[in-house]
Design brief:
Oligomer: single chain
Organism: Bacillus aerolatus
Signal peptide: 1-29
Protein name: S-layer homology domain-containing protein
Domain SLH: 269-331, 336-399, 401-464
Structural class: alpha+beta
Shape: elongated
Order of helices and strands: EEEEEEEEEEEEEEEEHHHHHH
Strand content: 35-45%
Distance between the termini: 31 Å
Helix content: 10-25%
Keywords: Signal
Number of domains: 2
Amino acid sequence: MRTSFTKYFYLYISTFLISLFVSVPSAEAAPPDFNGGVHNEYEYEEYVFLSGAPVKFSGKMTVTERERNDQLTKTYRFTLTNSNGSKLSRSIVYVTDLEKRTDKGQTTTQTAVKSYSEKITMGKVTYTLDDYQLSQGAIIDNRPASDYYSGNVVGRKTYKTNTDEIITIHFSGRNVGYENFWGATETQFIDYEIVSNQGKAFITSKVSDSKTKVLKYEPHDPSLSSFTGGHALISSQNMIGEYSYDIPYGSGTGTVHVNQEMVPVIERLIVPKFRDLNGHWAKDNIERLYSLGVFDESSRFFSPNTPMNRYQFTVGVLKSADIRVLEQPKNQRAPKKAIFADLDPKDPDYLYIESAYHKGVSKGVSATKFMPEGPLTRAQAVAILVRALGLENRAPTPGYQTGYADNNSIPKWAKDSVYVATEIGLVYGDGRNRFNPYQEMTRAEASAMIIRFLNFLEKDLQQNYRDDMLFFQ
């Protein structure tokens, strides 16, 4: 998913007839309409408020996209109807200029309207879009395991009716979102003011599009079989939206909702057959990671209680989050020099280590050594995970306490990561509230920590970017 798509995003939402646009990654979750609407594979629906009442339209939507020289052109077309015979047709083209700051790991976007055409007929009144002005800016923070983004938009739409009435809609809004291999969510808020001969009306749209991937165990019931069950990777997507309106000259105040779901996509994964995991507390964690290809063990024995080394853990984190790796130049014949003297560039997983180094996820034990076979400590593991998430800067100003009894034993280079990892639930202390930064981790313990890391990417971010934003604001 994330590895094969370009990183920018579109915020495009509006209530009823307002068209917004903000660039997002192509594999992102983003409400793909201009009216606070939602859709599935077959149908799109939205509410329109120009007549003074909430009128639900549904029908077909198409989106086309073209990119050239850091400029993205996106075209939306809608053909919608209402049960009372009302009709809506809309075609709008947006152009987004992107500025990629690779030195900062960030991308900024600026969006404008290139062309527009919109006509709505309700009863005997026809509303034609006569002018459309929009200014939008967005920022994407490109982190190794997940991108985080935010945008703001302001604009004005002017409609002319067949009775020569002018209706103006002023709008402003914002969006927040993230996107990674395990999930993507965008939540958008837009406030609209409709100005007409009848007075003023106010509409607020809240809409969220969310994608998730989950691992589900599927039992294999026949007793005469070579395996007892395996995991499936299930990708789901759903959209939820809410319009709150205050129309003094029409329907008064109220709220209407829209929601749609996609049909889940199911992918069956390889079946692990380790013989030394029965009854082990980390069996499910290990088998999940093996099914995903995070562990590529050829032996039938995983040895869960043996030490996890630095090389295996770093590679495992990048594989589990589907973090992009550097590519070897096709015309390069001789093996290139390794970034650390104790690494072999011919190793099949070497590029994961080099990518982790250049992305700031993992560092060597010195300027020349990575110590790939060295044991992994809890401090090292936590630092790798938090750097991958890009959240190390969320720690307080230096001088804070982590809350652990052995706070003073935590190395300075790991302290921010330990604080953040504790706050987001990746790690916790032992029975005596000690973090034990230098404790060497077993393969089982490391597996459990990676699974918590994946749960954060899948569930915790969705909770924060959708549920917390929609239901607690």
